[in-house]
Design brief:
Helicase, Ruva Protein, domain 3; elongated; 14% strand; Rossmann fold; alpha/beta; five-stranded parallel β-sheet
Length: 461
């Protein structure tokens, strides 16, 4: 038997008792509220699956309750009660997002039919949300996380090119996730069951790069005590990922271009050629076009590798993804460390969102790792973050040196909170859902901050 949570709102006590009895008899968990204000308090605490509210109530009408609930949690199913002559009000409620209406006086059979239909709709939505979450997990492109417009463009490009055989060049700064994108392209391609073979050209001596690429015969150079297959041959049939291709020495650029053109390789110390067939994905944190102009990179190779170019944005250009990434790293690290940390406080999240992140995602991951190690309560706090984040994000305003340190710090933090939230609400026209989504502050915490600073979201509409 399903145990959905239902909240019934009506200023008539007898009506509340009747509904509660009928709904509990059907096996549901039922809460009641005799006013709109009480209903919202219960709603925020219990988060019911279904709300049934009268439209005509003193002080706060059922229509306002509907609007507030839809703003707090849009997926909630709402049914409205209507009395004689208020069908027009019910139609208005339907336009505002109500699922259905029930006319008074209550007829138990009709009431139960409408409730069952509403709960069935909610169950379908929950199942669809779960399926969507599974699909999103599957198509997160190998742990590439983001919902910003810049990352959505990256995801769209991956979808479009994954099943082609064209060469791809991934551009972006260090720490932006270039190898993850390469692996994602491979995982969504026809070669997904074939090898994905990476090689980073940076920091390897020239002869080792050549040996890694093409392999070598025994005795072909000092230390070559056995023959070895190269990574290009190992990638045959799959994907070869050449990271930091801008570091490839010029003479090896010539040899690699020939491999791309002829699809044949020759091991160091061998005269025998071997056929290879692979898809090339390259990456660089350098401006290869500028390298071409400066004579540091072959023009013919450059145009051979960049049939498609994916440019990864710096983290500072996708600030909206910081909360998403920070919470993802937190969840993973908490498991590893065995700590019971539930989340990141609004104040700490604000500091994370204000930081310019010169080290991109890699830097953010290290910051969260440090914070998890230092955290002493169930939320990451500002003091768990590096001091550089606090300095970078310190709000502009007078520092009260006439106060004790803790009090002066609190004044600055509260000033920042107030300005940040007001600017956020101005940007989104008072829409709390959008403000919460962009800031990474969960809705309940955002409501607490609004109450704390006596900010009325509707004033920004």
């Amino acid at each position: 038997m399903n145990r959905e949570k239902i909240l019934v709102v009506d200023d008539e006590i007898d009506m509340l008792s009747s509904c509660k009895r009928l709904l509990e008899r059907a096996g549901n968990l039922v809460s009641v509220a005799d006013s709109g204000e009480a209903a919202l308090s219960v709603f925020d605490t219990e988060m019911p699956d279904l709300v049934i509210t009268d439209l005509k109530m003193p002080r706060m009408s059922g229509l306002e309750v509907l609007r507030q609930i839809k703003e707090r949690r849009p997926e909630t199913i709402v049914i409205v009660f209507t009395g004689f002559g208020t069908v027009e009000d019910a139609v208005t409620a339907m336009r505002e997002g109500a699922f259905d209406f029930i006319q008074k006086p209550l007829k138990p059979d009709e009431f139960q039919i409408v409730v069952d239909r509403a709960l069935k709709q909610r169950r379908l939505e929950v199942e669809n949300e779960a399926l969507k979450a599974q699909l999103e997990e599957r198509f997160r492109f190998n742990n590439i996380i983001g919902r910003s417009p810049a990352m959505n463009r990256v995801f769209d490009m991956i979808r479009r090119i994954a099943n082609t055989q064209a060469n791809v060049l991934i551009a972006g700064g260090s720490g932006t996730g270039k190898e993850l994108v390469a692996r994602s392209i491979h995982a969504n391609s026809r070669q997904k069951n074939r090898p994905f073979v990476p090689l980073n050209c940076g920091g390897l001596p020239e002869h080792l790069v050549e040996s890694e690429l093409f392999g070598h015969e025994k005795g072909s150079f000092t230390g070559a005590t056995t023959s070895r297959e190269g990574l290009v041959a190992h990638a045959s049939g799959g994907t070869f990922f050449l990271d930091e291709i801008g570091e490839l020495p010029m003479n090896l650029q010539v040899k690699f271009l020939r491999v791309l053109e002829e699809r044949k390789i020759r091991r160091l110390g061998s005269n025998k050629e071997t056929d290879v067939d692979f898809r090339l994905i390259s990456a660089s944190n350098q401006d290869l076009e500028q390298f071409v102009h400066e004579g540091k990179f072959r023009e013919d190779l450059y145009y051979r590798i960049n049939t498609f170019v994916i440019t990864l944005p710096a983290l500072r250009d996708r600030v909206g993804d910081v909360p998403l990434l920070a919470n993802h790293f937190l969840k993973a690290l908490v498991k590893v460390e065995g700590k019971e940390i539930q989340g990141i406080s609004p104040e700490a999240m604000t500091l994370l969102c204000q930081h310019p992140w010169p080290g991109n995602i890699r830097e953010l991951m290290h910051v969260i790792e440090r914070a998890v190690a230092l955290a002493s309560c169930d939320e990451i706090q500002p003091e768990d973050l590096p001091e550089t984040l606090g300095h970078a994000a310190r709000p502009v305003g007078e520092v009260r040196s006439d106060l004790p340190f803790k009090e002066a710090k609190q004044v600055v933090v509260e000033e920042f909170e107030c300005v940040y939230i007001e600017n956020l609400l101005k940007k989104h026209g008072g829409n709390i859902s959008k403000a919460a989504k962009e800031s990474g502050i969960d809705r309940r915490s955002l409501h607490r901050l609004l109450a704390k600073h006596k900010i009325v979201a509707s004033e920004f509409g």
